[in-house]
Structures are given as C-alpha cells and as structure tokens.
Amino acid sequence: MNKNTDMELFIHLLPRPASLVVAAGSPSGQDADLLAERELNVTRLDIATESTEILAFDDASVSGVWCDETLSRLDCMRISESLREFSRVLVAHGCLFISLEQTTSAGDEQAARDLIWAAGFNPLKIYVTDQHVCAFARNRADCCATGDKKFYDRNAF
Question: Are 104 and 137 in contact (CB under 8 A)?
C-alpha cells in the first residue's frame, strides 16, 4: 500500500468540480492534511469516536470519502452501516477509498467487494497487500441521495 499513489488515484477519480472531501479516520488528521495540501476542501471525521449512523452532511453533498484503516476497528455490521452512510452523503459517482486490515471480517478481496457493492458502490479497483485490502469505488448513481436505497444483486448484471 502506497498512500501517496492511492491518494493521487483517489483525487483523479473525484467528480469535477470536487466540492467536499471527508477524511474519515485518524484523529491526528494526517490524511486530511495531505488531502488539503492538494487544494481540496477537506473535513475530518474521527469515526473511531463518532458514530457514522447519521453523518452531519446532506444527501449527495460530498465528492469523496477517504477512509484509511479506520473501518478495521469496527465489526462487519458497523462497517456495512458506515459504507451505506458514506453512500448517502456522496454525490452520484462520488469516490470512496477504504483500506481494511486483513484480520477483519471484511478483510479479504471478495468480502470487501460484496460489502462495497451492497452499500451502493461500484468497485473500481481492489488490491491486496500483506496486511490490507484496499478498494476504490464510485457511488452508483441509482443508489445515492434517495431515502430508499436500491440494492441490487451484482450477479444480475
């Protein structure tokens, strides 16, 4: 996992013009600072201490969510809830980056792909390192910004 390479790809995948990027993760704010250095409007969110059940953002108001390793501290149900909430706040085709430790219940490529799909994202790139599963995804336009999310069987397409 190369954070700079991943961050550059994340920035490249953001819809233009990018409005707001949420750096969900470390309380130190290191990732938020790195994103802000790239001239993005960044809001830090420490999901280790704050619930993601209802993020304080309007539907479809965020261009991207960067979430490096933080979800690994949650159980599978909370990871799913967090991903669905990220989908709600992301604009159509908004970008998501997550990395999960392989020791978590979602820590293999197929489990990550299934969680991402079920939350309303199209996985773009998923790769596995010695310790992590990293994924880039886009918010599906047919799932975001609606009170009743549509969940599809990915095998139906």
Answer: no
The two tokens of residue 95 are: 């970008």
Identify the DSSP state of 88: H
List beta partners, residue 97.
66, 136
DSSP state of 3: H
Domains by residue range for the chain, with CATH: 3-156 (3.40.50.150)
Please state the pTM of the whole predicted model. Answer: 0.85
Give the per-residue pLDDT at 104: 63
Task: Determine the pLDDT at residue 152.
Answer: 38
- φ, ψ of residue 91 to 5 degrees: the values are -70, 165
Q: Which residues contact 156 (CB under 8 A, 6 or more apart)?
A: none
